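Ops channel
N.P.: pipeline sanity check, posting one input/output pair.
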Protein backbone atom coordinates (compact mmCIF):
# COMPACT_ATOMS: atom_id res chain seq x y z
CA UNK A 1 0.00 0.00 0.00
CA UNK A 2 1.80 3.16 1.03
CA UNK A 3 5.45 3.15 0.00
CA UNK A 4 6.33 6.33 1.93
CA UNK A 5 7.95 6.36 5.32
CA UNK A 6 7.01 9.92 6.21
CA UNK A 7 3.51 11.37 6.45
CA UNK A 8 2.18 12.01 2.92
CA UNK A 9 1.92 15.57 1.71
CA UNK A 10 -1.69 16.59 1.30
CA UNK A 11 -2.62 16.50 -2.37
CA UNK A 12 -5.72 17.79 -4.13
CA UNK A 13 -8.24 15.02 -4.71
CA UNK A 14 -9.03 15.45 -8.38
CA UNK A 15 -11.23 12.44 -9.19
CA UNK A 16 -14.65 11.54 -7.85
CA UNK A 17 -15.53 7.84 -7.53
CA UNK A 18 -19.20 6.93 -7.12
CA UNK A 19 -20.11 3.44 -5.94
CA UNK A 20 -23.19 1.79 -7.46
CA UNK A 21 -23.81 -0.12 -4.26
CA UNK A 22 -22.06 -0.87 -0.99
CA UNK A 23 -22.50 -3.47 1.71
CA UNK A 24 -20.58 -2.81 4.96
CA UNK A 25 -18.41 -5.62 6.26
CA UNK A 26 -19.80 -5.21 9.78
CA UNK A 27 -22.80 -3.41 11.29
CA UNK A 28 -22.01 0.18 12.22
CA UNK A 29 -23.72 1.02 15.52
CA UNK A 30 -25.59 4.30 15.44
CA UNK A 31 -25.20 4.65 11.67
CA UNK A 32 -28.34 4.90 9.56
CA UNK A 33 -28.61 4.37 5.81
CA UNK A 34 -28.02 8.05 5.00
CA UNK A 35 -24.85 8.13 7.11
CA UNK A 36 -23.67 4.97 5.39
CA UNK A 37 -24.17 6.49 1.94
CA UNK A 38 -22.35 9.69 2.89
CA UNK A 39 -19.43 7.71 4.28
CA UNK A 40 -18.89 5.18 1.48
CA UNK A 41 -20.88 5.93 -1.67
CA UNK A 42 -18.75 8.87 -2.89
CA UNK A 43 -14.96 8.71 -2.68
CA UNK A 44 -12.15 10.95 -3.87
CA UNK A 45 -8.81 9.97 -5.38
CA UNK A 46 -5.75 11.94 -6.42
CA UNK A 47 -3.53 11.69 -9.49
CA UNK A 48 -0.62 12.19 -7.07
CA UNK A 49 -1.35 8.71 -5.64
CA UNK A 50 -0.83 6.17 -8.46
CA UNK A 51 -2.65 2.85 -8.44
CA UNK A 52 -0.80 -0.10 -6.96
CA UNK A 53 -1.15 -3.26 -9.02
CA UNK A 54 -1.73 -6.69 -7.51
CA UNK A 55 -2.47 -10.14 -8.83
CA UNK A 56 -6.26 -9.90 -8.74
CA UNK A 57 -6.71 -6.15 -9.07
CA UNK A 58 -5.32 -2.73 -8.42
CA UNK A 59 -5.50 -0.57 -5.31
CA UNK A 60 -6.26 3.16 -5.22
CA UNK A 61 -5.75 5.41 -2.24
CA UNK A 62 -9.01 7.28 -1.63
CA UNK A 63 -10.70 9.52 0.93
CA UNK A 64 -14.32 9.91 1.84
CA UNK A 65 -16.25 13.08 2.64
CA UNK A 66 -15.19 12.78 6.30
CA UNK A 67 -11.49 12.84 5.39
CA UNK A 68 -10.94 9.15 6.20
CA UNK A 69 -8.19 7.58 4.08
CA UNK A 70 -8.96 4.12 2.70
CA UNK A 71 -7.77 1.64 0.09
CA UNK A 72 -10.11 0.77 -2.79
CA UNK A 73 -9.28 -2.50 -4.54
CA UNK A 74 -10.92 -2.99 -7.92
CA UNK A 75 -10.92 -6.30 -9.77
CA UNK A 76 -8.62 -6.45 -12.77
CA UNK A 77 -10.30 -7.53 -16.02
CA UNK A 78 -8.61 -9.37 -18.87
CA UNK A 79 -10.16 -8.18 -22.15
CA UNK A 80 -8.89 -11.34 -23.91
CA UNK A 81 -10.37 -13.74 -21.37
CA UNK A 82 -13.62 -15.56 -22.06
CA UNK A 83 -16.75 -15.52 -19.93
CA UNK A 84 -15.74 -18.67 -18.07
CA UNK A 85 -12.40 -17.18 -17.04
CA UNK A 86 -14.05 -13.91 -15.98
CA UNK A 87 -16.57 -15.79 -13.85
CA UNK A 88 -13.69 -17.62 -12.21
CA UNK A 89 -11.89 -14.34 -11.51
CA UNK A 90 -15.05 -12.88 -9.99
CA UNK A 91 -15.47 -15.93 -7.76
CA UNK A 92 -11.82 -15.62 -6.66
CA UNK A 93 -12.28 -11.90 -5.92
CA UNK A 94 -15.31 -12.65 -3.75
CA UNK A 95 -13.33 -15.41 -2.01
CA UNK A 96 -10.59 -12.85 -1.32
CA UNK A 97 -13.19 -10.61 0.33
CA UNK A 98 -14.53 -13.52 2.40
CA UNK A 99 -11.01 -14.30 3.60
CA UNK A 100 -10.38 -10.69 4.60
CA UNK A 101 -13.74 -10.56 6.31
CA UNK A 102 -12.63 -13.39 8.58
CA UNK A 103 -9.25 -11.77 9.29
CA UNK A 104 -10.40 -8.17 9.70
CA UNK A 105 -9.67 -6.61 13.11
CA UNK A 106 -7.06 -9.26 13.91
CA UNK A 107 -3.65 -7.79 14.69
CA UNK A 108 -1.44 -7.83 11.62
CA UNK A 109 -4.21 -7.65 9.00
CA UNK A 110 -5.91 -4.63 7.33
CA UNK A 111 -9.35 -3.63 8.62
CA UNK A 112 -12.13 -4.28 6.14
CA UNK A 113 -14.95 -1.80 5.49
CA UNK A 114 -17.10 -3.49 2.90
CA UNK A 115 -17.84 -4.77 -0.60
CA UNK A 116 -19.42 -2.80 -3.44
CA UNK A 117 -19.30 -2.11 -7.15
CA UNK A 118 -18.33 0.69 -9.54
CA UNK A 119 -19.90 0.61 -13.00
CA UNK A 120 -20.74 -3.02 -12.30
CA UNK A 121 -17.15 -3.94 -11.37
CA UNK A 122 -16.70 -5.42 -7.85
CA UNK A 123 -14.58 -3.49 -5.36
CA UNK A 124 -13.27 -4.06 -1.84
CA UNK A 125 -12.95 -1.10 0.51
CA UNK A 126 -10.44 -1.52 3.31
CA UNK A 127 -7.87 0.17 5.52
CA UNK A 128 -5.02 2.03 3.87
CA UNK A 129 -1.89 0.68 5.56
CA UNK A 130 0.65 3.46 6.04
CA UNK A 131 4.12 2.02 5.71
CA UNK A 132 6.58 0.21 3.47
CA UNK A 133 6.61 -3.25 1.99
CA UNK A 134 9.45 -5.39 3.27
CA UNK A 135 10.84 -5.34 -0.27
CA UNK A 136 11.03 -1.55 -0.39
CA UNK A 137 12.31 -1.36 3.21
CA UNK A 138 15.40 -3.47 2.49
CA UNK A 139 17.49 -0.39 1.77
CA UNK A 140 16.69 0.91 5.27
CA UNK A 141 17.43 -2.47 6.86
CA UNK A 142 20.82 -3.05 5.23
CA UNK A 143 22.91 -1.56 8.05
CA UNK A 144 25.64 -4.16 8.54
CA UNK A 145 28.82 -3.79 6.44
CA UNK A 146 30.19 -6.74 4.49
CA UNK A 147 32.80 -7.22 1.73
CA UNK A 148 29.97 -7.33 -0.81
CA UNK A 149 28.29 -4.21 0.57
CA UNK A 150 25.72 -3.49 3.30
CA UNK A 151 23.54 -6.43 4.34
CA UNK A 152 20.60 -6.92 6.68
CA UNK A 153 21.85 -8.02 10.12
CA UNK A 154 20.87 -11.55 11.14
CA UNK A 155 19.11 -10.23 14.27
CA UNK A 156 16.91 -8.03 12.04
CA UNK A 157 16.04 -10.98 9.79
CA UNK A 158 15.08 -12.98 12.88
CA UNK A 159 13.00 -10.13 14.32
CA UNK A 160 11.02 -9.73 11.08
CA UNK A 161 10.50 -13.50 10.91
CA UNK A 162 9.23 -13.61 14.49
CA UNK A 163 6.85 -10.71 13.83
CA UNK A 164 5.39 -12.45 10.77
CA UNK A 165 5.03 -15.74 12.65
CA UNK A 166 3.27 -13.92 15.51
CA UNK A 167 0.68 -12.61 13.04
CA UNK A 168 0.17 -16.07 11.55
CA UNK A 169 -0.06 -17.58 15.03
CA UNK A 170 -2.85 -15.14 15.91
CA UNK A 171 -4.74 -16.20 12.78
CA UNK A 172 -4.34 -19.86 13.77
CA UNK A 173 -6.87 -19.32 16.57
CA UNK A 174 -9.65 -18.88 14.02
CA UNK A 175 -12.14 -21.67 13.40
CA UNK A 176 -10.72 -22.01 9.88
CA UNK A 177 -7.03 -22.10 8.97
CA UNK A 178 -5.47 -19.49 6.69
CA UNK A 179 -3.31 -20.35 3.69
CA UNK A 180 -1.86 -17.10 2.29
CA UNK A 181 -0.01 -18.69 -0.68
CA UNK A 182 1.92 -15.51 -1.52
CA UNK A 183 3.79 -14.59 1.66
CA UNK A 184 6.51 -12.58 -0.10
CA UNK A 185 8.41 -9.36 0.70
CA UNK A 186 5.93 -7.53 -1.55
CA UNK A 187 3.02 -8.61 0.66
CA UNK A 188 4.57 -8.01 4.07
CA UNK A 189 4.04 -4.42 5.17
CA UNK A 190 5.96 -2.65 7.94
CA UNK A 191 3.58 -0.08 9.40
CA UNK A 192 5.22 3.30 9.94
CA UNK A 193 2.33 5.32 11.39
CA UNK A 194 3.89 5.08 14.89
CA UNK A 195 7.58 4.25 14.28
CA UNK A 196 9.90 4.49 11.29
CA UNK A 197 11.49 1.37 9.84
CA UNK A 198 14.83 2.44 11.35
CA UNK A 199 13.26 2.82 14.81
CA UNK A 200 11.68 -0.63 14.56
CA UNK A 201 14.99 -2.16 13.48
CA UNK A 202 16.82 -0.48 16.37
CA UNK A 203 14.24 -1.82 18.84
CA UNK A 204 14.32 -5.29 17.30
CA UNK A 205 10.52 -5.39 16.97
CA UNK A 206 8.48 -4.83 13.83
CA UNK A 207 4.87 -3.76 13.30
CA UNK A 208 3.92 -6.21 10.53
CA UNK A 209 0.77 -6.24 8.42
CA UNK A 210 0.08 -8.93 5.81
CA UNK A 211 -1.64 -7.79 2.62
CA UNK A 212 -2.93 -9.05 -0.76
CA UNK A 213 -5.16 -12.07 -0.24
CA UNK A 214 -5.85 -12.70 -3.92
CA UNK A 215 -4.19 -16.13 -3.73
CA UNK A 216 -5.23 -16.98 -0.18
CA UNK A 217 -7.80 -19.46 1.04
CA UNK A 218 -9.45 -20.53 4.27
Amino acid sequence: MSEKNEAPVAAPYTSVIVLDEFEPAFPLPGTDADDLHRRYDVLFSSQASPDLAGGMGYVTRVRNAFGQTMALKRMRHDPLAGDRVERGRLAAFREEYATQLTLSHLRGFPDLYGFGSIDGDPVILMEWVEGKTLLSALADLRTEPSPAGPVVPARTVAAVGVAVLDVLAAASHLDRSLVHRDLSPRNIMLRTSDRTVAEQAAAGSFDVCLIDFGSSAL
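N.P.: looks fine end to end. The CA atoms of residues 44 and 67 lie 9 Å apart.
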